[in-house]
Amino acid sequence: MKSPLVYLTAVKLKNQLKEAVKHPAKLFYVIFLAAMLAVTVIGGRDAEMDPRPLYELTAIMVLFYSLMFLMTFINGLNGGAGNYPMFTLSDVSMLFPSPLKPNKVLFYGLTRQLGLSLLLGFFLLFQYTWLHAAYGIEYIHLVLIVVGYAMCLFLGQVCAMAAYTRTSGNDDARRVLRYIVYAVTLGFVAWLVLSCLPQITVGANPDDMFSFALFGSVEAGAKFLSTIGIFFPVSGWAAGFIGGIFTGDYAVAGICVLLMLAAFAISLLLVVKNKNNYYEDVLQTAEVAQSAITAKKEGRPAEVTPKKVRVGKTGLERGSGASAMFHKHLLENRRSGVFLFSKMTVVFMLITIGCAVLYSFIFSEEEDNTAAFVAVFAMSTYMQMFSESMGRFSWEISKPYIYLMPEPPFKKLLWATAETLMADCVEAVCLFVPIGVILNIGPLDTVLCILTRITFSLLFTSGNILVERVFGTVRSKGLILFFYIIALMIMAVPGIILGVFAMGLEFLPGAAGMLLGMIAANVPIALLVMFLCRNVLQYAELNGN
C-alpha cells in the first residue's frame, strides 16, 4: 500500500497537469516561457568575450544568495508569511487531523518546499546570455546556480522555522536573535569594506584615479567574497559549494556541503524536539495565504496590514477634495514605516546598483561605457515595470470611497497617482546618481537618464490605468498581467525606436540621443493614454465595484 503522503503528492501533480491542459492560457504561457528560454540559449551562444575569472561569479553568488537568505530568514523570524510556507489551508484541514505523525507531515512539507524553491529559481535560467559571454559558462553550470539558489532559500526557510518555534512567545529572545543576525551581517560587511579600503588610495594618474580605485576596490571585494565570504552562514556555503565545483576546488565544495547538512540537521532537530507543537504556528500563515488566494480569485488586492503601525497624529492636516488622497497616501506611508520606498523597491535599487558595478567590470575593456549603461538601464526599466504595478492606485480603486468624491474623474485620477509619481522621481535620483558615478557617464547623461526613468514611470502608470479601464471587471489576474505586459511593451516600442534612431544619428555623444528620443515619445504617449482613460473613476461598475 502506498504511503498516504506519496499518494497525495502524486494526485496533486496529476491534477496540476490536467489543469494546465484544460486551460489553454496556462499552456500557452508555459510554451511562451519555453520559447523565450530557447531564444536565450541560442542567442547567448553568439555572444563571445574573453572569459573573466570565475571567482567573480562566486562573489556574485555570495551577494545574491545572502540577500535572499537574509530576507527569508528575517521575515520568517518575525512570523511573516514566509514562516511555514510549505503548508496550505487544505493541508491544515486534511493532514493535521489525520493519524499521521507530526514528523512525517513536516517532512512532506519540507519536500514540497524544496520543489517550490527550485521553481522560484526558474527566472535565473534567463541570465544565460551575459553569464556565458562574460564567464564562458555552459547551461549545466547555470542549472547548478539555480540549484544553489534553491538550497539557499530552502535552508533559509528551515532555519527561520527553527528560530521561530524556539522563540515563539518570547519577544526578548526573538529580539536578541535578530540582533545577533544583524551583528554578524554588519561584521561581514565591515570586513568587506575594510578589504576594499586600501585599493581606494591607489591610482595610476590623477585623471584615472577614480576608475582605477573603483576597479581595484571591486576586485579586492570579489576576492574577499570568493574566499572569506563563502563561510557566511548558509548563503555563503551554498555559493561556496557551487563555486567550488566551477573552479575545481572540491575540498571547499565538500566543506560547504557538510556545513549545509549540519545546519539542516540542527534546524530540523530544533523543530522536531520543540515542546510546542508546530501545528499552531502553521495556522496563521495558512490563513494569510488562503486570504490572498481568495482575494486573487475575487479580483481584488489582498490586504497587507503592517504588524507595527505608527499612529502619531490623526487626521489630515492638508488637502481638500481630490488632493486629500495624495496626503492620505503620504500618511499611510509614514504609519507603515515606509518613507517613500517600499522594501521591494529598495531591493530592486540595490540589485540595479550592484549590476552597475558588475557591468562596469565586465565592459571595462570597451572604448566607452555605452554598452554597460544600456544594459543597466534596460534591466532597471524591466524591474520598474513590475514595481509600478504594485502602486497605491490599484488599491485605491478597489474601494468605493474614491468614486464617491464629488470631483471630476480626471482630477481624482491625477491625485490618486501623484504619490507614486513623486516617489518615482525621488527613486530615479537616488538610483541613477550613484550609477552615473559608477559608470562615469557624465552629468548630462545622468540628468537625461533620470528624466527618462521618470517618463517610464509615467508610461507604466498610464499602462496600469489602461488595464483597469479595459479589464476592470475581469477576475482573472493572469489574463490582466499578460495584457499589462503586452500593453506596456506596445507603448514603449515608439520610444525605443525613436531612441535607437536618434542614437544612430550620432548628433549627441554616448547615449544622450537615445535618452532624448525615449523622452520625446514616452511623455505624449503616457499623457494620451491617461486622457483617453480619464473616465475610469466615473463609474464604479467599470472596475467591478
Characterization of this structure:
The chain has 545 residues and is an all-alpha fold. The chain has 3 domains: 1-46, no CATH class; 47-292, no CATH class; 326-543, no CATH class. Helices cover 73% and strands 0% of the residues. It has helices spanning 4-22, 24-44, 54-77, 89-94, 102-120, 128-135, 139-167, 171-200, 209-227, 235-247, 250-272, 279-297, 323-335, 343-362, 370-388, 392-396, 401-404, 409-416, 418-439, 443-471, 477-505, 512-532. The N and C termini lie far apart (51 Å).
Summarize the structure.
73% of the residues lie in helices and 0% in strands. With 545 residues, the protein is an all-alpha fold. It has three domains: 1-46, no CATH class; 47-292, no CATH class; 326-543, no CATH class.
- Overall radius of gyration: 25 Å
Percent helix: over 70%
Compute the number of strand runs.
0
Distance between the ends: 51 Å
- Summed up, the helix count is 22
Described by strand count, sense and barrel closure, the largest sheet is: none
Q: What is the approximate shape?
A: globular
Beta-strand fraction estimate: under 5%
Element-level helix/strand string: HHHHHHHHHHHHHHHHHHHHHH
Quaternary form = single chain
Number of domains: 3
SSE topology sketch:
Elements: H1 4-22, H2 24-44, H3 54-77, H4 89-94, H5 102-120, H6 128-135, H7 139-167, H8 171-200, H9 209-227, H10 235-247, H11 250-272, H12 279-297, H13 323-335, H14 343-362, H15 370-388, H16 392-396, H17 401-404, H18 409-416, H19 418-439, H20 443-471, H21 477-505, H22 512-532
For the structure shown, list the relevant keywords.
about 550 residues; mainly alpha; 3 domains; globular
